[in-house]
Design goal:
alpha/beta; 12 strands
């Protein structure tokens, strides 16, 4: 018996061609065990010859799974599309899911309370799990993720961390210490730091590590507030310009490459030389920083590895694996010309 291939092919057609019951065909298509190899081979052959495609919606009614996971990015749109962190994260997570049937969708939220919308998305069966790629200490936001009835993995250490919480991050606090030691070795005694957004743990940890290491040498760094964006780096550069000129600041730790590039653009127009007038060390080790003039000395932020690890942890949890502890990746300095 033959059946024309196409979208109208049903599981009953597969069962008839394979000479098995519909229940047996269904078990083989779902990947269940308990079917003889002979019958399984017949079903697979029928699926191939007929071009049968399982109905995802119907299957989800049986399995209560959507075969979909969300990459949640609670950031304003303008940052998502301007910061390389997010593009690399999407690519890494997508690649880590390539050998599965899992579909990746993106869910966005700004910082003005859209976690209310996310609560419905994460709690109402739309996805099987989620990876949160950036999060802030905004009332209600982290609780929305932590209370979701699905596995959730964080890229970035949450402030309210528990032993059962899954997250992956780079050692931001040690990264701050590494920068401080680098600038001290270069002779800096009047450093400044351009912070990231301080409602984010990564920014807090980089500031804390840097300040603690400097304070062990009796130095209190000047703190300039930024928000991980190139524009905020430029504004910090304007604020620091007179301090560099009068010698009040001799080195700057920019908590992201984008902020360093923004500040250096201002200083270039103002005739301030890097590293002759001010040494600069940053964080992220982006390609743009490596290609800058002068090239940025920067601490690695292995975003691709973090995305891959987060996807791996989520896959293990979806498969019913044991609870794995957090993954903390080492921070390493990449020395270049700027500092």
């Amino acid at each position: 018996m033959s059946v024309e291939p196409g979208p109208s092919v049903t599981l009953e057609d597969v069962a008839r061609v394979a000479g098995v019951s519909r229940a047996t065909a269904s078990r083989v298509v779902r990947g269940d065990h308990g079917v003889s190899e002979e019958r399984a081979r017949a079903v697979r052959s029928a699926v191939s010859s007929l071009g049968y495609v399982p109905n995802r919606a119907a299957r989800s009614l049986v399995t209560r799974r959507t075969d979909t996971v969300a990459l949640v990015v609670p950031e304003p749109d303008q940052r998502i599309f301007s910061d390389p962190f997010f593009a690399v994260t999407v690519q890494a997570v997508s690649q880590a899911l390539e050998d599965t049937d899992i579909q990746l969708v993106m869910a966005f939220a700004d910082r003005a309370g859209s976690h209310q919308r996310l609560r419905s998305f994460l709690h109402d069966g739309h996805v099987d799990g989620a990876i949160v790629a950036s999060h802030h200490q905004i009332p209600g936001q982290i609780e929305t993720f932590m209370r979701a009835p699905i596995p959730v993995v964080f890229i970035g250490r949450p402030a309210q961390s528990t032993s059962s919480l899954a997250w992956v991050d780079v050692d931001n606090r040690e990264g701050g210490r590494i920068v401080a030691r680098r600038l001290l070795e270069r002779g800096s005694r009047a450093p400044a730091i351009i912070t990231g957004t301080l409602d984010m743990v990564a920014a807090q940890d980089r500031l804390e590590g840097f300040s603690q290491e400097m304070e062990t040498h009796g130095i209190v760094p000047r703190v300039i507030h930024g928000s991980f964006t190139q524009d905020s780096g430029a504004r910090a550069g304007v604020e620091l310009t007179p301090l560099i000129r009068d010698g009040s600041v001799d080195a700057v730790f920019a908590s992201s490459d984008l902020m360093a590039l923004g500040a250096m653009g201002v200083w270039g127009r103002e005739g301030i030389r890097v590293p002759e007038d001010v040494a600069v060390v940053s964080f992220d080790d982006l390609e743009a920083g490596a290609l800058a003039d002068p090239a940025l000395t920067s601490v690695t932020n292995p975003v691709d590895r973090m995305g891959w690890e987060a996807a791996r942890m989520l896959r293990e949890r979806l498969a019913g694996g044991g609870v794995e502890g957090p993954v903390l990746l080492p921070a390493k300095l990449v020395p270049r010309v700027s500092g």
